[in-house]
Amino acid sequence: MLVMGLLPFPASDAHATERMTCEVARFGGYADAQARWQRDLTELITSRHPDLAEVASLYRDDQLVRIELRRRVVMRLGEEGPQALDAQRPLRRWGLLDAAGEDRLAERDPGVARLLEQRRTSRGRPPHPDGDQLRRIMREELMHQPAYLELLERLTTTLAQAEAVTCD
Q1: Which residues are within 8 A (CB) of 54 and not within 5 positions of it... i.e. 6 or more apart?
Q2: Are 18 and 151 in contact (CB under 8 A)?
Q3: Does residue 4 form part of some domain?
């Protein structure tokens, strides 16, 4: 009977795996909301200022790489188990590793390595000539528009829904 108490119970392992799958999916909903926000915001910008399509798309693509990198990191950490993925923290903090942690994960996952390289390339790129104009238009015009505020409300609601999911 003592031996039985020391062996892991399949139901416990199955529950832990199920919980991690749920937590990774929970973050997936969070990441999906962020990606949708980036696409919708770019569409809003370019519909009002077609001349800024290049810079808006460039910045969107940079953000989508960051979002996908975090999604991939969370997926890998979830595979390692509850100790690697601290599900008690807010979702906005998930998938954020220091450079050494990212590099260790990249050694084991070519997808992480590819996304890290894309992020590093975008960080090393000189500022886009229209970047200041885009930021000015965002501050002075778009952030006060009902269409922008609707997108922001949808983002906020969707992120809150992802945070509210429980995986017990």
Answers
A1: 128, 130
A2: no
A3: no
The parent domain of residue 128 ranges over 14-164
Q: pTM, whole model, 2 decimals?
A: 0.89
pLDDT tens per residue, the chain (168 residues)? 334 444 343 446 788 889 899 999 999 999 999 999 999 999 999 999 999 999 999 999 999 999 999 999 999 999 887 778 888 889 999 999 999 999 999 999 999 999 999 999 999 999 999 999 999 999 999 999 999 999 999 999 999 999 999 998
Residue 155 located in a structural domain: yes
Q: 3-state DSSP call for residue 20?
A: helix
CA quadruple 109, 114, 119, 124: dihedral sign = positive
Q: How many domains does the chain have?
A: 1
